[in-house]
Specification:
Layout (H helix, E strand, L loop, with lengths): L3 H11 L6 H28 L10 H12 L12 H72 L5
Amino acid sequence: MPPGFLTRAIAALLGREGRSLHLRAAGGATLVLLVVMLTGSWAVVAAEQGARGANLTTYPRALWWSVETATTVGYGDFFPVTPWGRVVGAVVMVVGITTYGMVTAALATWFVGREQRRRHHVAHDAHALGEETARVLRERFDRLERLVAGEQAGRGERP
């Protein structure tokens, strides 16, 4: 049974019905990245255990390695030397790159959506203002026509 915080975090990332699909996908990808980093750290330690020249022999080192690999920082201080360790590294890299791409796309979509909504509101307000201005001008012209028609009738002229 996962701890209460983890359960709430998973529910917050994946469980909201009102959230858009891209935000749920980014949240899900982040959760997958976390699982891959934790599992990858364990797997690389298992793959590197006893290998000649291995430097990923403890879980804390492997966890740091998985974080720098997923973020594509890759300082080079830790690296796998066995073929299976490199396979684990490739998986962590691909999942990390994909996740950061999805999160970036979700943020960009959010910003673009906000701007589109703002522009829609501005256009709607401008349209409403134009309608109100046209109504006021029609009323003024009607009043002017009545005044002009009244003056012409008072002078005996035909409108």
